[in-house]
Structures are given as C-alpha cells and as structure tokens.
Amino acid sequence: MNAAEAYRALEERFRRRARVQDALSILHWDNATLMPAGAADGRTDQIAELTKIAREILLDPATEDLLGEAEADAGAIDGWQARNLELMRREHRLATAIPSDLVEAMQRAGAASEMNWRTARRENDFASQRPHLEKVFGLVREAASVRGAALGLDPYDAQLELFEPGLRDTDIAPVFADLGSWLPEKVAAILERQASAETPSAPEGPFDRAIQKQLGEGLMRALGFDFEQGRLDESMHPFTGGVQDDVRLTTRYTEHGFVEAMMGILHETGHALYEQGLPKAWRGQPVGNSGGMALHESQSLIVEMQLCRGPAFVGHVAPMLAEAFGGQPALDVANISRLVTRVRRGLIRVDADEATYPLHIILRYRLEKALLAGDLAVADLPGAWNDGMADLVGVRPPDDRDGCLQDIHWMDGAVGYFPTYTLGALGAAQLMAAVRRDVPDLDARTEAGDFAAFTGWLREKVHARALSATTGEVIADATGAPLSADAFRTHLDARYLN
Amino acid sequence: MNAAEAYRALEERFRRRARVQDALSILHWDNATLMPAGAADGRTDQIAELTKIAREILLDPATEDLLGEAEADAGAIDGWQARNLELMRREHRLATAIPSDLVEAMQRAGAASEMNWRTARRENDFASQRPHLEKVFGLVREAASVRGAALGLDPYDAQLELFEPGLRDTDIAPVFADLGSWLPEKVAAILERQASAETPSAPEGPFDRAIQKQLGEGLMRALGFDFEQGRLDESMHPFTGGVQDDVRLTTRYTEHGFVEAMMGILHETGHALYEQGLPKAWRGQPVGNSGGMALHESQSLIVEMQLCRGPAFVGHVAPMLAEAFGGQPALDVANISRLVTRVRRGLIRVDADEATYPLHIILRYRLEKALLAGDLAVADLPGAWNDGMADLVGVRPPDDRDGCLQDIHWMDGAVGYFPTYTLGALGAAQLMAAVRRDVPDLDARTEAGDFAAFTGWLREKVHARALSATTGEVIADATGAPLSADAFRTHLDARYLN
Questions:
Q1: How confident is the model at residue B324 (pLDDT cuts 50, 70, 90)?
Q2: What is the rounded average pLDDT of the residues B3-26?
C-alpha cells in the first residue's frame, strides 16, 4: 500500500470512529436532558461499551501500520490532508502514551473523587476530599510526566495539550502576567464608577417559560443558528452537545427572571454556531473538528460578552423584551444595559462577570501549576486559595464550600483546563476588535437585528478553518496580531470606563 | 476452556452486543421523536456503523468456537442458561444463514422500494411500485429458501421465524381457517345490532394537548408504568422504543379529539409494561428478551382492547374525562362505550376495529403466502386484493392507495409479519379470559382504578418468562389451553352481541 492509499484508509478508519463518537454525543446529550433517573446504570454501560469500541478502532494495530506507511512519503499528500495526518498521529500518541493500567487508575480515582466531592462540597468538608485530591493529583502528575516524555513536553504543557492542541505555558505565562498586573486595579476603577451610577433594578416576573424559549429561539435564528440541524432544550447545567449536523444546546429557565436563561442561550449559541460552521467536507476527520477549548470559548464569549451585553444588542433586544413580557421601567435599554454589565467581587467563578472572571482563573492557573509541580501540598490548598482570592479578587471565602471546593475540574483530574476560559475571553475581545475593523457599521447592524456580517465574519475567519491551524494561528491570521490581553483591556475601558 | 466457561464467555459477548443494540434503540427513538430533519444522513451513517459493529460481535469467529464448546457438554448448564444457549445458536444461525451479498441486495432493494412507495402510495401508482415489489419478493423468496434450508424449515416458516421464534404455519393455518369460517358472519351480526342502537356522538373539542398528556400519564402510572424507567413523548407514528430500563412510548395528539391519542397511549402502555416487566437479571441475554411479535401484540391488545375498551374501564375513565375537559353529554359512560366499540367495514387496516381487523390480516396472510410461493404474480396483486377485501371485509377498494399499497410491510420485505397482529389479538382474548378466571372481581377493581391484580397477573404469567418459553407455551401455561380463536369469539359475543 502506498502512502496515499494508507492515508485514505486512515480517513476511513477515523470516519468510522467519529460515527461511534457521534452516537456517544447523542447519548450524552440524552443523559443530561431527558433520560429517566432509573436508566443511569444501563446508560453508563452503553457509554462505556461504545467508548471502548471507539478506542479499539484507534488502537487497532492496523492504525499504527497505516500511520507509518502514510508518513513514509511526505509528498503524497498536502494541505489539510497533511495536517489531518499530523492530528491523527497526535490522537494516536495521546491514546497510547499512557499505559492502560494508569488510565484505569485515573478513571477510578477521578470517579471516586467526584462522587465524594458531591457530598464534600455541600458539607464544606475539605478533610474528606483531601485524600481524593492527593490521589488524583498524584496520578495526574505521573500521567503528565509519561505523556510529556512521549510528546517531548513539560508536564504542565502535556496537560494543556489535552484541551488545546499546541498551547504551551510559554504562551500563557506572559499574557496572564500582564493581565494580573493591571486587572485588579481596573476592577477597582470599574467598581468605583458603578458605585456612583444608578443601581440596576430587577425586572419583575413571572416570566413565562414558553415565551422565554420562543424569544431565545428567535435570537438564535437571527444569529444564524440553523434549526434544521440543531435544537434548543433544557438541562440542569446549560451546555452545547450533539453532533456537527445536529447541534443541541440547552439552557435552564426560571420564572423569576429571564436574563440568565437568555444570556445562557446566547453563550451556547456562540459554541453552536462554531460547530455548525465547521466544513462539512471534513466531517469525521481530526482536521475537521473544532479547535481547542480556548478557541471554542472565544466563540461563545464573542457572542455573549462582546456582542450581546453591548449597548447595540441591548438596544435591539429591549423592545422585544417589552413586547414579550409587557412594558415595565426595568425593561428599558439603560436598565438592561446596567443589569448585563454589572461588576461585583464574588466568591464563585461561574457567577463572575467578565471583568473579575480572569482573576478567578489566574488564581487557579497559579495553584494548579504549583500542585502539579509538587510545590504546593493539597493540605495547604485552602489557605493558598483564600489568600489568593483576597489578593486577586478582593474577597476572602468564609469556607471551602465557596472556596477551593467550588469547581469540579480538579476533582476529576482536569488539570490545565482553566486557562482556556480566560484565553477564550481575551481571544473574543481581540476577534471583536477585528470584526469592528472589517465591519465598520457593526453597531448599526446589531441594533437593527442584522447579524449576517458578524456571523459571516466568524464563519470565514474562524469556523471554516476547523483544526487546520492552531488557536494561536487562527487568532493571529484573523486579527493581525498574536493573542494578548490588549484588546480585552481596551474593551473594558470602552464598556466600563469611558 | 470447558463448556461452562465457554457459556460464560458467550454471555459476556452477547451482553456487549446488547449494549450496542441498546444505544441503537435510543438513536432510533431520537430519530422518530426529536431529531432535526437535516441530521438524517449523518444519523443513518451512525446507525449503520453501530449495526455493523453489533453484527461483527456476533459473527466474530470466536462466537462460533464458543458455541461449539458450550454445546459440547449438555450437562454443564441447565434451565434458562440452556435455553439461552439455544437462542444464541438461533441468532447466530439466522445471521449466518444468508450470504452477505444477498443481505445487502435485500437491504438495497428494500430501501429503494420503500422510498418509491412513499410517492407511489400518495399518487395511487401501483405501476411504478410493481417492479420494486417483484424485486423484493424475488429476493425474499431466495432468502427464505436459503434460511429455510439452514434451519430445516419451509420458506414461509423461515419467514415467520424472523418475527416469532418457533411459530410455524401449521400453528396458524387451522386457527385462521376457523376464524375465517365464522368471523364475517359475526361482523355482519354486530353491524346489524349497532345499526339499530344509538349512534355515538363525537365529543366536542378543542381538547388541550397538555391535559391529554397529563391524563395519559396518570393512566400509565395507574396501570403500573414506571416513570423512573421510561417516558411518554410524541411522534408521527406511535410506537414503543427505548430499552428495558428506559422504555419510551409515543403518541400523537390532536385537539379535535382525545380518543385516538388516549387509546394509542394505552396500547403502547401494554407493550411498555411487557418490556418493563422482563427479568432484570437476564438483561442483555437472548433469553431475557421479550417474546415474538405475537406475544408482544397480545400485551398491547390485552390492555387496549380487552381492558380499556371494556365497560368497567370506561366507567373508571369517563368521570376523569369530564373532570379534565368539562362535562358534556358525549362524555358520559354510555356514549364513550359506544365510541370505543364502534364496528365498521373499512378499507384501512390500521384504522380497523377489533372485530374486522382479523379479516384484513387473513387477506394479507393468504396473499403473502401465495406471493412467496409464486402462486400469485405481483401484477395480479391489486385484483386479488380487491376481490379479497370484498369477500372478507365486505368493501371493495376504489383504488390501490387504499388497497394493496396501504401497508409498508411488503414494500420493505417484511413477509410473515402480518399474522402476528391477529395471533396477538387472539392471545389477548384468551389471556384475558384467564385473568378473569384468576381475578374474579376484575371489573370492580377496574372500575375503581385498581389495576394491580391485572398487571401483576401479566407480570407473573407473561412478562417474567421473557423468552424462556415460546409464545405458544406461555399462552398454554397461563390459560390451560393452546392458542385458538375460541376466547376471541366468546369475547366478541359478550362485548357486542349479548
């Protein structure tokens, strides 16, 4: 078999695996939205079986042989195919780097840790979680070291690679150092400004769920979401799931307010537009997948934070809200703008506004690096967390429940994930500045509810590129500069301090 | 490996296959209920891939070896395990009997035929369907002959075996001959009786869908359906899908009336109770599956036709209907009873009442046997159909749309399926007579909305047996007599002519 034939055989193999993974995505979505509680054990078995089958397709000895044959003649393929082959090798390397007994040990320890955490968090019981965290960090350290050796990476980079292909700590460190140097002061300035401005008043409900849903669907459609290839549903925790031609996003409604559910829909719509905008011809191939978590988050945040919390979008949506829910002073443009741009020093990352959110992330980034390197003992985590919160965010958690026990990520072994949230926020700001450069009348269009140029720009500059380039390359090509915190700073000044 | 070890390895292998099949069931359910239209092609690929994987698990050479080893020592296992091994061999034989190029040819021809039928039926175009039907019957004939040779069965029996393990035409022929000898006259007598009675009046809507659903769920719960392991949803064609611990049934609501949706729910609840009542310890094993289609249909019909269209149940539900939708004369017990027991000579099988339905089936049974044997040419089907309808049901179709083009079964190659509908109806009547024997105060309980004894009887006598016995054995054990049309005749007399 020559290199071109081997490459085609690999495409077919990865396509088969992707079909199994697509089936898994639908099962996971069903789990989170509709599945009756009593089906959980059976579903776990089904998911485990399909996961094993997908893994077997990748780890079949034939895959390794085909990779070798395809790589033997670098001239046989080029462009996206060559990149695809690189990514196939990367997936194979990631899957084979860690011995299977270590993989199993991590899964077992992660599952036990997560299970304990569900109680420990509620009961503010760090002592019971500590041995689990020690075990998990011990195993992650071992895996990061083995994986790093296989990929030629330092351990923390070997963790970052899991969530964002090609991302290195040398990309993050200077950006986060810059951000950390000026953001706390900026937050103080914003808070001072908001303290002297009018306090936003809460709109009075009840807000009918069906009307909220209808409104959300209308906004999704206007933004370019294709309901022929996707759905909007409800789940406890909003997420975007499904598959490329069947993108399923969820939100959670309450009748007391509509802002959270609406902003949740808009956030997930950003993720969903990315998935729907991937090139159909490359479906099922590694190069046809969406980029890393940072780029994905940039797509949700450019819609939610950059576009939809901005004055032009609020100007567009406020009359729709008054029409849907009946007029009240709290639904005027100025009040809604205040509501969706309110900044507060808080304890909880997932409730944080865009200005303070990166400070929550910088804390986690520093701590997880220290925990992974062994420079910080798990036993010392609560103290380090609380000191860091006081220092960076300006509030000291009264307990671990709302402190170092608040997030699931570490409990599960997901070390290296947190930075992608803030890289996404910085990317969103930088991409939005480029949209404004290329679409000078963006605000007028937005206020008129015309999002074609906005979404079209993202489709061309981001979505259509899929994984043919790294997140760094996509952002640099689209904006003309490497990813930095500059545009985010300019954005905060313009929105909060002008 | 000794026989007991080989058997245990087979159990594990079939369990893995069942997990893949369970995933497929959820994907099929999702297809029919929620999937956006634009995802159809991708879903077809996912389903094809998982179907292939499930088939590969069965057809792996190791399965054949293990079957041989397990069968080598008949004393190593007994009871349900021995029956399970038999059924494993049966599945393996069915899957290997037909050469794969013939399987593929049938799938292709069936898909093309079904696709053409969707238009041909609408346009009353038998001419365009004829070559497809000829091709499909030709291939089914070939497959039935090959499968029959492998199983030691005549071709029609080899078709029946696909839908009802162990069912032979020698079981059907005398029963259908008996039924055909007296049912046309009985229908005439019923129609004469109903013509001289009061005509039922249609309740006046609109009937709110949400209230219909709530009512349906309440009835399901009362009948013993476990919502911790199942759901009620909507689809174009009502069906029961999902998996044993997540049984998902559907109905279709209209605001003009509630009877059809409610009876649809009750029918599917019969299927669903069967699935929920299968023994959990045997989940994923062939012996743990539900019995053939005839026994499954007996479970839907004993609930819908025997129990819920009877006067005691109508007495129970009529006040609930008046409460839910507001009182009106058409919602009184007598009128609803007349509505749900109205008999009419009609053209369409799926719209037929319980008295005329078997006549539709006897026609199809006769015709499909003749078509399969080559005694009837496809070209002569419309004429034979119309003559048979005039003779058996007493109406002559004005066109093929409402004649021989009305059903999907043959278009798809499902020859041998039709008899199971009527065997199910006869089984339901015979089982209901046995319930009445064992639960003398059944009517009083039913009128009071207490279905525990009814469902409990079915759980013990039918559901819990799964595939440990044939349909014939289950019915004979539960009722004390082999399956016949006697109880059905008694039932018609009691309900319509007493």
A1: very high
A2: 98
CA distance B85 to B102: 27
Task: Give tens-digit pLDDT for B447-493.
Answer: 999 999 999 999 999 999 999 999 999 999 999 999 999 999 999 99
The whole-angstrom separation of Cα B235 and Cα B350 is 16
Nearest Cα neighbor of B139 from B155, B153, B126, B154 is: B155
Contacts of B34 in chain A (CB under 8 A): 231
CB neighbours (10 Å) of residue B299?
28
* Number of inter-chain CB pairs under 8 A, A vs B: 93
Nearest residue of B to residue A37 by CA position? B228
Question: In which residue ranges of chain A is pLDDT below 70?
Answer: none
Q: How far apart are CA A359 and CA A388, in angstroms?
A: 9
Q: Could you give the CA distance from residue A325 to residue A311 in angstroms, rounded to a whole number?
A: 20
Name the residue of chain B whose CA is nearest to A41's CA: B245
Is the distance from CB of B491 to CB of B484 less than 8 angstroms? no
- C-alpha span between A21 and A14 (Å, rounded): 10
Residue B166 buriedness (CB in 10 A; 0-12 / 13-18 / 19+)? middle
Question: pLDDT tier at B403 (50, 70, 90 boundaries)?
Answer: very high
* Cβ separation B50–A26 shorter than 8 A: no
Question: Which residue matches tokens 């006259």?
Answer: B185
Find the CB nearest A26 among B19, B30, B283.
Answer: B30
What is the number of other CB atoms lying within 10 angstroms of the CB of residue B313? 24
**CA distance readout (Å), B332 to B140, B259, B308, B314:** 50, 13, 15, 9
Nearest to B469 by CA among B479, B461, B457, B459: B461
Residue A397 DSSP one-character state:
-
The pLDDT confidence band at residue B182, using thresholds 50, 70 and 90, is: very high
Contacts of B245 in chain A (CB under 8 A): 38-39, 41-42
| Residues B71-89: tens digit of each pLDDT | 999 888 989 999 999 999 9
Six token digits for residue A327? 């007029």
Would the CB atoms of B245 and A41 count as touching at under 8 Å? yes
Q: Do B39 and A283 touch (CB under 8 A)?
A: no
Amino acid at B2: N
Torsion angle of the four alpha carbons B389, B394, B396, B401, in this order, in degrees rounded to the nearest 10:
-60
Give A-chain residues touching B243 at CB under 8 angstroms: 39, 42
Residues listed for chain B: 498
Per-residue pLDDT at B327 exceeds 90: no
B321-330 mean pLDDT: 94
Spatial CB neighbours of B447, under 8 Å, sequence gap ≥ 6: B312, B313, B315, B316
Question: Following DSSP, what letter does each residue of A118-182 receive, concatenated?
Answer: HHHHHTT-HHHHHHHHHHHHHHHHHHHHHHHHHHT--HHHHHHHHHSTT--HHHHHHHHHHHHHH
Q: Which of A336, A360, A340, A359 is nearest to A348 (CA)?
A: A360
Q: Is B232 left (phi over 0), alpha (psi -120 to 50) or beta?
A: beta
Residue A327: per-residue pLDDT: 87
Q: Which residues of A are catalytic?
A: 268
Chain B residues with at least one Cβ partner in A under 8 Å: 16, 19-20, 22-23, 26-27, 30, 34-39, 41-43, 45-46, 48-50, 53, 226-231, 243-246, 283
Whether A243 and B26 lie within 8 Å, measured CB to CB: no
Q: So what's the pLDDT on residue B234? A: 96
**Does B217 score more than 90 pLDDT?**
yes
Instruction: Please give the backbone phi and psi of residue A250, each rounded to the nearest 5 degrees, phi first.
Output: -130, 160
CB contact under 8 A, B22 and A46: yes
Structure tokens at B221: 């719960």
Round to whole Å and give the CA distance between B208 and A235. 26
Q: Give the whole-angstrom CA distance, residue A423 versus residue A166.
A: 14
